[in-house]
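Narrative of accomplishments. A recurring question from our advisory board has been how the design workflow behaves on a single, concrete structure rather than in aggregate. To address it, we present the structure tokens for one chain from the evaluation set, followed by the sequence designed for it. No filtering or post-editing was applied between the two.
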């Protein structure tokens, strides 16, 4: 099962305008339907405020009576949603005109409209229906440039729709000019809440990505340097092991006469014995026998002293 978002906590205050962005399949529509109570969350809860009147623009326009003229449709929407603001025919035509239906286009049946024209009619009715929360799911999908700009004007933060809004859109300009909060879904179960416009979030996101890229490059460089040093150390060790021991000089010490392999075997033997003594002295019973304890301590001290010249000789050969 794909997790669309987890641990999401959001409080939408009256008058705020929220944009929801993210890749296809990230769960934007599912999130909106969950916020509206159409889908139950797997965990947590959702609560709508009192007196909230929701207008929901969906990507599909199921349930429309297609055998209505545009202006008649708008009259019917307002009469149903806000009876006190019922429109005359002229007012309905003026509203249709504001959404770019001119002249005979206002007489067209919804059935005969293109997808973009039908979207315009639905949006006009929604924005004029006195809803104090409107939810728009990809409202510009079928709109031409002029229609999208008209919608942007109608939703604009200055002089446009004054209620609360939740907007799903891939139109970054629309999001940027109409929303002051963002929910950003990453498509991997993550959700980010951001107070600000899309431009502000984008600038922050670019800076964050650059910082992450720099950190990755630094970590990669450190790892490469550590690997280079490791290989160099292994090469020095290999060379030391493969280098024949020099012929002992007259009066050479015992250590100088030993081969590198003999040195390493002796060092390992002494180190192993020191580890064994440490393990024995860590036991609780050893302290019951003071004599044994003293013997082990003396042996360890001698081993540590004896080990030092062997290690020094090995290092001398490895570095030469």
């Amino acid at each position: 099962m794909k997790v669309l978002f987890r641990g999401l906590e959001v409080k939408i205050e009256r008058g705020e305008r929220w944009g929801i962005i993210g890749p296809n399949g990230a769960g934007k529509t599912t999130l909106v339907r969950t916020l509206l109570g159409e889908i139950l969350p797997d965990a947590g809860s959702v609560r709508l405020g009192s007196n909230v009147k929701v207008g929901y623009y969906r990507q599909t326009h199921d349930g429309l009576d297609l055998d209505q003229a545009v202006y008649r449709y708008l009259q019917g929407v307002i009469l149903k949603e806000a009876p006190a603001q019922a429109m005359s025919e002229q007012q309905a035509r003026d509203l249709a005109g504001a959404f770019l239906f001119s002249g005979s286009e206002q007489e067209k049946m919804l059935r005969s409209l293109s997808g973009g024209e039908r979207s315009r009619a639905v949006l006009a009715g929604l924005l004029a229906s006195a809803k104090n929360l409107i939810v728009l799911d990809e409202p510009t999908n079928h709109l031409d440039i002029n229609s999208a700009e008209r919608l942007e004007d109608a939703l604009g933060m200055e002089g446009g729709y004054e209620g609360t809004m939740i907007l799903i859109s891939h139109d970054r300009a629309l999001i940027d000019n109409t929303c002051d909060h963002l929910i950003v879904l990453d498509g991997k179960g993550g959700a980010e809440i951001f107070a600000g416009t899309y431009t502000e979030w984008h600038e922050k996101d670019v800076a964050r990505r650059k910082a992450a890229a720099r950190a990755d490059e630094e970590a990669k460089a450190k790892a490469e340097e550590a690997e280079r040093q490791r290989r160099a150390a292994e090469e020095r060790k290999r060379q030391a092991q493969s280098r024949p021991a020099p012929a002992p000089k007259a009066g050479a010490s015992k250590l100088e006469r030993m081969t590198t392999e003999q040195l390493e075997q002796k060092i390992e033997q002494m180190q192993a014995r020191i580890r064994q003594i440490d393990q024995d002295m860590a036991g609780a019973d050893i302290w019951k026998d003071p004599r044994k304890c003293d013997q082990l301590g003396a042996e360890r001290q001698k081993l540590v002293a004896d080990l030092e010249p062997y290690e020094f000789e090995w290092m001398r050969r490895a570095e030469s």
